Each structure stands twice: as C-alpha cells, then as structure tokens.
C-alpha cells in the first residue's frame, strides 16, 4: 500500500489532465503532448480523456489542429466530479485491511478512517477546478511549480 489515502492511477491522471488543461486556458492541447508532459501512455490517457469528455469535463476536437480542452463550465466542477467521472460514486473507507480480522462492531482505530474519508470527501466536494487553476496561476507567476 503506497499510503493510507490514495487514488487510482486513472483518477490521478484525470486530475493532472484537468489541472494541466485549466492552466492552459481555452487552448487545445494535443493528447500526445499531454501524455508526454504527464509521463503516461497515450493509450491509457486516451481512455481517461474519453471518460472525461463523456461526462462533460472536457471536449475533444479531431483533426490535425485538434486536441482537448476543458468545457465551458468545467472550471465550476469540483474535484469530486472529476474523481467520480473516473471511479464512480465516492465510497466511504471502512477498513484498511483487505481481509477483515475483527467483527467490525467496533473499529480498532476508533473511527479514524471514517473521519479521514469524510474529510477527503468534503475537500474534494468543496474544491473547484477554478480554485486549483488559480493556485496554479499564482504559483507559476511566482516561478514555482506545484501540483
């Protein structure tokens, strides 16, 4: 396990794709360039872009001058919208153990996992793509590079 709180590779790529497109404004970005900049395979990225387009987060344009960009209303979408476009409905974390060893009547960690899961949900639901884009713009104007 890489960490207690983690997202799938597909969700991570979706977040990074959305952040990258938000930082580029309304400019079309080619899938090949995105794959290169995110260090992911074009095939995997294409599947994720397809899901994101199907749920209205981004639009794709075919042809030699084509690419993808965020849809007009995407900046008001939340990180939860992006997560659920890839993973489906957010499920509360119940147990860290893949194989339960207790009866589940009383969590040995005292509800800590449920609280962390609720907090993550709250953060994803309250953070818009616009919030992230503003942070990216601010950090780029100060010469920093953050994700």
What does this protein look like?
There is one protein chain. The protein has 147 residues and is mainly alpha-helical. It has a single domain (9-141), classed as Arc Repressor Mutant, subunit A. The chain has helices at residues 9-23, 31-38, 42-54, 79-87, 112-126, 129-141, and strands at 58-61, 67-70. The chain has a two-stranded antiparallel ribbon with strand order 1-2. A hairpin with a 5-residue loop joins strand 1 and strand 2. The radius of gyration is 18 Å and the shape is elongated. The protein starts with 8 loop residues before the first helix and ends in a 6-residue tail after the last helix.
Summarize the structure.
With 147 residues, this protein is mainly α.
Summarize the helices and strands and which ones pair or pack:
Blueprint: H1 9-23, H2 31-38, H3 42-54, E1 58-61, E2 67-70, H4 79-87, H5 112-126, H6 129-141
Helix pairs in contact: 1-3, 1-4, 1-6, 4-5
Please indicate the percent range of residues in DSSP E strands (runs of 2 or more): 5-15%
Backbone shape: elongated
Note the quaternary state here: single chain
Strand order of the largest sheet: 1-2
Largest sheet report? 2 strands, antiparallel
Instruction: Find the count of extended strands (DSSP E, 2+ residues).
Output: 2
Listing every helix as H and every strand as E from the N terminus to the C terminus, the arrangement reads: HHHEEHHH
**What number of domains?**
1
* Architecture (CATH level 2) name: Orthogonal Bundle
Mean pLDDT: 85
Helix percentage: 40-55%
Number of helices: 6
Quick one: CATH class? Mainly Alpha
Rg estimate, integer Å: 18 Å
Judged by helices, strands and strand pairing, the structural class is: mainly alpha
